[in-house]
Amino acid sequence: MSEPREIQVTRDVINVPTIITTLRPDGVFVIQLYSFTANSPQLFREGLREFVESRSTRLVLDLRGNPGGYLEAAVDMASWFLPSGKIVVTEDYVEHAKNTIHRSRGYDIFNQNLKMVVLVDRGSASASEILAKALQHYGIATIVGTNTFGKGSVQELVNITSDTSLKITVARWLGPDGIQIPLEGIAPDFEATFAPEDKEAGNDTQLEKAVALLLEKDQ
Questions:
Q1: Structurally, what CATH architecture does the domain formed by 19-84+104-150+178-216 represent?
Q2: Which residues are tagged catalytic?
Q3: Among 91, 154, 184, 205, which is most exposed with the fewest C-beta within 10 angstroms?
Q4: In this structure, what are the phi and psi dihedrals at residue 195, rounded to the nearest 5 degrees?
């Protein structure tokens, strides 16, 4: 057995960005969204403005590794692509309470010229799955990647004492088709893996698959 080693670690604050936008040389615009926070809708709106100003019609929304967050953020983002009143997701209480239906606010600024792909992987959960499923269901976007996490349930925190709480499942998420987000996750329209050796080599095979599909649509 090797001898123990002492490693000095310096504490620091790691700032994880909420959103990153990139216009690729091939004309594909990429929005990487890392979480659904309270300010995500405004940042997403600014990202979409950059996309429109770029004059590109090809958009990749990268939700890989995005664990979710605020439901309202996902609904607001879906509203940029869907007419008013379209169902984004439903909280189904299985007859124990009245279902809550979340609908598009109808910003709906894009026309048929938009070509869109959503990138997902096993780390895409909750609000990521809700947004991806809605865009897929209405034919707005094609999903590329691997199966998502499968967060098809709604949890609620119940305070037990001043310093303890219990998280319980109170409902399930239903997509616009009325079907619960499956436990095995949402299956992509086109499967594409991202092997560790590709990642180490800086070769994002999933993104390149998404880009190839968007460029094919122009031919």
A1: Alpha-Beta Complex (3.90)
A2: 126, 151, 155
A3: 184
A4: -70, 150
